Amino acid sequence: MFEHSDAVLLARIQFGFTVSFHFLFPAFTIGLASFLATLNGFWLWTKDKRYLDLFRYWVKIFSLAFAMGVVSGIVMSYQFGTNWSVFSDRAGPVIGGPMAYEVLSAFFLEAGFLGIMLFGRERVGPTLHMIACLAVAVGTATSAFWILSVNSWMHTPAGFRIDPSTGQFLPTDFWEVIFNPSFPFRLMHTVTAAYLTTAFVVGGVAALHLLRSRHRPGSANPATRTMFSMAMWMATIFAPIQIFLGDMHGLNTLEHQPAKVMAMEGHFRSYPEGAPLYLFGIPNQDEQRLDYAFGIPKLSSLILKHDLNAPMAGLDTIPREDQPPVAIVFWSFRLMVAIGFGMLGIGLWSLWTRLRGRLFDAAMLHRAALVMAPSGLVAVLAGWFTTEVGRQPYTIYGYLRTSDSVAPLDAAAVGTSLIAFVIVYFAVFGAGTYYILRLMGRPPMEAEPRLAEVAESPTRTAGITPAQQQLTLKANRNKRNGDLT
């Protein structure tokens, strides 16, 4: 079946598939952990039950998404030692340290306090429970710090030398390795994207229940309205910040990885007197041209160099073998940008309805927010494809080519494992995602049950019906409140 396939391409597809699945969960949980810490803080500050109900509602979803993120991330580490063992051997002295720090300082911080966050409110007291919530939020952000530092180093390597006898990359300056030229921009852009991803998922869930409340009175309780309001504030504030950070990241990429920007812009030829911004076109890499191009003259030069007449080099200055796959980079970049401006539109729209006092009555806004609920997840994947495919044909930009990073592979073995990954991932993570969607499908309740109550209560597979389960939950709440009637 794979006799005539390219083993390197199959290994790239396999890693891309597993990373894409994994990336969705941290992109959601980084923001959700901070959202939970905020809700818990508001509950302790105001004693408003809405915040406690929302915390208990979203912490169930967080626990599932966090678990799936951990499991899906483990697989990638094995691929470093199998399909990409040559890359691991060559780059290990540089990237091994930061990846170990990610486990020691970030994952242990998350895992160590996660149990207290999920189950410890009544056991450890409000102060320590709040500290646990903050520790998990900080841990997720710290994890992003170390992982993005390693990834950024692969794009803009610094602080190293190459051993001439072994070909290994050896660190010479730890701080230059960590704070390499693209790292601050990639970190801010990615973490902000995670917060926006969470905001639009939360906003979409709230919008769903606000829309249902038009036909089901009582579906939109105060907690639902609070949830929608908080999500829209995040969209209003962070969407323009994200666009600004994206522009800064693009300027940094132009400085250090010009071929990637050429592919993003679809510039197959150089423009000595100002380059157009192509809104649409079909990249034809074989003929080195952009077919059916539609663009705005000189706007690309204005955006990238702040001068309408600034010259812009094109892919005609890059050897064909060093060019990234233009079509993927060109279209994934446009998808990411389009979603970013869509988020900005939702944020401004929500601000307008808020000022008019109609935030919870604007059905069209709620429908748009529901449609945009998964937009953050799509955008982070589009951005990841833009960044990683745009780095090709290198794993370490300018130094180590992808074809020289892969282990001696048999295409049949890689193809077979790829098929196995696809089947297992869609079965396992598909089931987990379906259950998360089921949880999101019901609105937060007044006196939302704790995670411990849900975990301890009987399930339908044990012969207990949903009605009986609700009675059990109610009895547990009454017992906890001292009302045995």
TrEMBL record:
Membrane-crossing segments per the record: 20-45, 57-80, 100-120, 127-148, 192-211, 223-245, 328-352, 364-385, 411-437
The keyword Transmembrane is assigned to this record: yes
Localization annotation: Cell inner membrane; Cell membrane
Composition-biased stretches (Polar residues): 458-475
Superkingdom, natural source: Bacteria
InterPro entries for this protein: Cyt-d_ubiquinol_oxidase_su_1
UniProt keyword Iron present: yes
Entry keywords, A to Z: Cell membrane, Electron transport, Heme, Iron, Membrane, Metal-binding, Transmembrane, Transmembrane helix, Transport
Membrane topology: Multi-pass membrane protein
Chain spans, region Disordered: 456-485
Coiled-coil features, chain-numbered ranges: none
Cited PANTHER family: CYTOCHROME BD MENAQUINOL OXIDASE SUBUNIT I-RELATED (PTHR30365:SF14), CYTOCHROME D UBIQUINOL OXIDASE (PTHR30365)
Recorded family membership: Belongs to the cytochrome ubiquinol oxidase subunit 1 family.
Name of the protein described by the UniProt record: Cytochrome ubiquinol oxidase subunit I
Organism: Paracoccus spongiarum
